[in-house]
Records
---
Amino acid sequence: MDDYLTIGDLAKRAGVATSALRYYEERGLISSERTDGNQRRYQRSVLRTVSVIRAAQEVGLTLAEIEQALDSLPNSRAPTKSDWTKLSRGWRTQLDERIGELIALRDELDDCIGCGCLSLRSCALFNPGDRAATFGTGARYITGDERPSLS
Amino acid sequence: MDDYLTIGDLAKRAGVATSALRYYEERGLISSERTDGNQRRYQRSVLRTVSVIRAAQEVGLTLAEIEQALDSLPNSRAPTKSDWTKLSRGWRTQLDERIGELIALRDELDDCIGCGCLSLRSCALFNPGDRAATFGTGARYITGDERPSLS
DNA sequence: CCTTGACTTCAAGTCTACTTGAAGTTGTAT
DNA sequence: ATACAACTTCAAGTAGACTTGAAGTCAAGG
């Protein structure tokens, strides 16, 4: 049973809090077995899953989206190498998009620095509408709901 | 008094909800005058301020940080061209940093796609610790609290 | 004048991703 | 055997940026 991790060990190795792990489990993102005394024991592969979750979060995905992605895997949960390849390819695309958006925004900023934009006539930054209008809490623009054209 | 905007007009032209404008005002980010009947009337310059606020949010700043930036302006609120230049230069820097982070993450993803990372031995993505460990809700990594080195 | 849409305030609700606290149980080293 | 850290559950709290709803007032067209 050296192959099993306690929640504390997993937390340490994955770089997350134990409370976060319990939360992931509650949401169904990871799973565990229990000891006779009802304590969680995680398979090593769960460490991999948690790493994937954190990476996906950095890409900008919500836990709901990550859950969906993990659910879509053939052997649900605990992604294999080819699963990971599939997922990361998709995420890379989204990441590319977000990077593109930020670069576009940066270009607008550059144009605006000292351009007299404050006239509000032609400045892209100061004319909303085609830029991401709805971005509530957090970075939601990456999910593909809508993509600001910045044309 | 054609120079004044109602809250509905401002909302439409700025691309935000009226509730958001009241919220900004409550937080002290924008200000208004009142009619005899106690309705808000905004100066045209407020449209500019709202645009600046939205742009800054897209850069990744919180309202608290934006408020601080606006407060730091000599003629507080309603930024002039040179104020805007100052602000946008600073924001551009942060934007650059965030873009750099995302690009680094993308490179990691690329390395990981089909590299056998799942061994968990040497993969940057799968070895947390030096990557941004704390990013709660939203894009907090841009604020300079901590910068992941991704070394 | 009257209707109707736009406005007012204020309190409370929403969403995401957790964290914190209380009260109690388990595992392990000595 | 005993201490003590690490674990358990469950409820409630947190942060940020708003939104929603209720109950009432204002403004402009016909």
---
Amino acid sequence: MTGTTTSKIDTKRTQMADIARLAGVSTATVSRALNGSVLIKQETRERIQELARSLNYAINFSAKNLRSGDNRTIGVVIPYDINTRQHISDPFFLGMLGSLADALTDQGYDLLLSRVDAQHLDEVAKLYETGRVKGIILIGQWRHHDQLNELAMRRIPLVVWGAQLPGQMYCSVGSDNRMGGQMATEHLIQKGCKRIAFFGDVNLPEVAQRYEGYVLAHHHAKLPLEEALRVATPFASDLAQKMMIEFLDQTILFDAVFAASDLLAISIMGLLAARGLDVPRDYCVVGYDDVDAASHCHPPLTTIRQSVDVAGTQMVDCLEQLIAGGRPESRVLKIALTERQSTRQRKFR
Amino acid sequence: MTGTTTSKIDTKRTQMADIARLAGVSTATVSRALNGSVLIKQETRERIQELARSLNYAINFSAKNLRSGDNRTIGVVIPYDINTRQHISDPFFLGMLGSLADALTDQGYDLLLSRVDAQHLDEVAKLYETGRVKGIILIGQWRHHDQLNELAMRRIPLVVWGAQLPGQMYCSVGSDNRMGGQMATEHLIQKGCKRIAFFGDVNLPEVAQRYEGYVLAHHHAKLPLEEALRVATPFASDLAQKMMIEFLDQTILFDAVFAASDLLAISIMGLLAARGLDVPRDYCVVGYDDVDAASHCHPPLTTIRQSVDVAGTQMVDCLEQLIAGGRPESRVLKIALTERQSTRQRKFR
DNA sequence: GTGAAAGCGCTAACAA
DNA sequence: TTGTTAGCGCTTTCAC
């Protein structure tokens, strides 16, 4: 028995042989016609295509893939860290996923979504090695640089969203975090801020680079750096919230915040508001990502925009090159500062 | 030529035949051994499994699927509406996606993610008919009830996240929207609110049911309904924002808001704050979904919690029944009100 | 311009 | 307990 025992009238799905019989040609001709081969006389081709359509024919991908040793599926992997609970709860990732879905669809790929425990990143190798996917896009580098390098050495076509790191064997696409950090900080300095708190987990490469930009801006402006102003919050979570409250309770002197993600920025703005403090009058705040919420929150958030759409197409482009046997360069995407209320109307002191 | 021309040393992937040769058995034995068949002597079985492992063997799924006429992939579809730009920008959907990813993985399924133009929902049928997926989970019913019915009539195993509607041919899983709307409204009434604005697009079945609950609560409390208090905002977007501002500008008398999504609720709270109005002192606000942001915003938002994890497993469960030829009932999941600051400390007037 | 035929890597009925 | 054999539905070389 072939199909599942779903119904008694197991209407076998139409296949090439059926079309061939009906059209009075061979399956070879049908195959060619359906693939738009110029070898087939136009008239025959159109007749067969029409027939296929009217029969509601749908090709069997398993057979096609088996025969051609090929497939058009890309694995998109979102690692999650059980310990830090750094799940995909950030809307930025959803945006990225959407962007990838579109970019892959455009190129005729299917998207196999997989959540993988970051402890066992080598599981993603299986995806490739079983022939399920032709390549892998990994969203979120976290702190798994070494594991990623290992995957790349196994010759797995792999593109990672994240920072470009020294000694990197895999292809990465990411935004210019250093520049982003610098621009954000310079913007604040320009608004007259002098004691800028930095919120973010510098153990993550991307955040570390944003912090480097922050440091650089301070150097340029000949502003001193202060340890107490660096708060190592994880990405938005209860813990981050707790750390921010702690920070505020310490009554450390500061006049601005640069947060490594919009979620953190929005969170701190809420905390400040709850204490009767006003943004931007009392504190300026800059975020990172430019998620939807950044423009809808109050006050609307000045932030560093990472272009998600571009990211998607770029990653797919890299992956295609990798699949074709190329060795694409990692890419660093341009960012831009979007100024909104959270840093406006600030008076110099 | 078989493989892609990636490298010169085109190391052909190991396959069953290789293992068979090395083990001095037939491929049939290897197949059985690897599938853990009890027909094979334990010793042989273990030897073969060990060999496979050491050779880093990975089965070819195309071949397996072709032969067995089966596969373990489920399509998860997120329709997007080009017109209303109702993309998947709501974090609630990300949560759902994550939950589904986990539930499917637990059951040994792969997740094929697909974004489909809501105008062409029949495209999802192709996913099934080409044998790419064994069933389909659709997140977001929007206003496509009829199209979904049609898909169901084509005998496509389909589970939809959304409201249960009369004359529904497909299996749906959703939360108890009516009850949710009622609970939210009753909670507000209990806090002393009398003129409760409702924000949400009642053209969407889920929102319509929430509104029904709102109406019911008013009846129970013998409170009059007022047209002016119903604001047909779409799901969070610039347009929604604009409509809320318009509403506020009209200076319609109201003392509370029940928003059909947390995003809307958070948005309105920001708008109110920007006008120097306080939640919950001046206005109480209740949202819907209980997304992460609801507890991190300020003030923390009272909201109706939809249990995303349960939703994922329930949908997968339904789909499995459908695939097995069953006819599972649609499910309505329990909701719960989570009280937070946005409705606290309200004094009766 | 079209057809015949081989076979992709695996599974399962039937034999032994 | 294991092997033999016959395909699953498609693509593609080679022949006409």
